[in-house]
Amino acid sequence: MRLSLSTNWFRSPDMEAAEIVDRALAMGFEELELGFATPQDVGEGFKRIAGRIRIGSVHAFCPIPLSAPVASPELYPLASLDPEERALARFHLLRSAKFAAEVGADAVVLHAGRVPLATLFHRDMGTDVLRGTLIDNSKDVNAKPYAKMLDKALAVRRKRGARLLDVFKKELEGVFPRLRELGVTLALENLPYLEGFPDEEEMLALLTEFGDAPLKAWFDTGHHRVREMHGWLRPAALDALEKTQKGGHVAGMHLNDVTDLYDDHFAPGFGKVDFAALAPLAKSVPHVVFEPKSHVDEPSLRKGIALIRKVFL
After folding, report:
1. How many CB atoms lie within 10 A of CB 11?
2. Residue 274 and residue 272: Cα distance in Å, rounded?
3. Residue 265, Cα to own-chain centre: how many angstroms?
């Protein structure tokens, strides 16, 4: 197992590719994921020093598109009912895939999109509202006010997700030929909000339908923990997740820890994720990527590395 580090941890705009590689190697990493916060010039730098360290994965959209106001993995949703949004997402996804091939990466991680949960005729039942209700009820997922609201939200989410799934399948069919040419797999990440698409059941449906396509899942430990703490993982979702993982459909993992109901991206060991329980999955995937936010200092990251080496290796 090679341990990888997301370059999003290096948020200094003045840091060059060579310096990033040197620091990653000094901490014992054998691989990098080029994050969605990678500037254009740094991306070009990684091309020039190809071979210094393996680049395993690229997180769309990377490098940062020139037209983008900010660096974000959700600039352009490929899973959208808006055809103009999908067209932009398709263009920038394939641009990221081309870049991945140029630096030797075999996977592009994507936040596919969100299922809208608010309309003029429905009370907003999105993540923020659900979380507020959960907090108001002592974070008890079985409290009646929260459970009632969640049941309604899941019903709306299921119905609207089915419609988005049909649209998304057509988009995937359009990008698969180019991904095959490039030798790059599209890895769809689980997301830390109820609106996040695809959810566990939708993910399995996609992987089952497109069994021979360059498509896999990407498992984020912190995102999963957030979903778990909110009570979103009903038995059907857990069953779908187990089938996805045991079926060899996971391209990689993001390792990050969370302390509460939020996606904090702490170093492993500084939150409530049970990493020991994830060891079998980690041993079965090609890419195991630390993805701490830039506020995590190096001593904390090194402690996280030591923990992961203990429980995974």
Report:
1. 13
2. 6
3. 12
List Cβ neighbours of 272 (8 Å cut-off, separation of 6 or more).
Answer: 225, 257, 258, 259, 260
CATH architecture label of 3-116+163-312: Alpha-Beta Barrel (3.20)
Instruction: Give CA–CA dist 27/309, Å, rounded.
Output: 12
Is the preceding peptide bond at 286 cis, omega within 30 degrees of 0?
Answer: no
Three-point CA angle 247, 251, 252, nearest 5°:
115
> In this structure, are residues 283 and 232 in contact, taking their beta carbons and an 8 Å threshold?
no
Mean pLDDT for all residues in the chain: 95
- Name the token pair of 308: 């992961």
Would you give the end-to-end CA distance of the chain in angstroms? 7
pLDDT tens digit string along 10-48? Answer: 977 678 999 999 999 999 999 999 999 999 999 999 999
What secondary structure does DSSP assign to 207-234, as a single string?
Answer: HHHTTTSSEEEEEEHHHHHHHHHTT---
Per-residue burial over 271-283, b if 16 or more Cβ lie within 10 Å, else e, is bebebeebbebbe
Tokens 């566990």 sit on residue: 200
List 32's β-bridge partners, or say none.
5, 55
Tokens 């003045």, located at residue: 14
Please, where are the H alpha helices in 55-126? 83-103
Instruction: State yes or no: pLDDT of 120 exceeds 80.
Output: no
**Residue 304 in contact with residue 269, Cβ under 8 Å?**
yes
The span from the CA of 201 to the CA of 206, in Å, is: 9
Tens-place pLDDT, residues 63-76: 999 988 899 999 99
Nearest-CA neighbor of 114 among 189, 39, 53?
189
* Tokens representing residue 190 in the block: 């689980």
Kindly state the percentage of the chain with pLDDT values over 70. 98
Output the pTM of the full model.
Answer: 0.96
Distance CA 222, CA 289 (A): 12
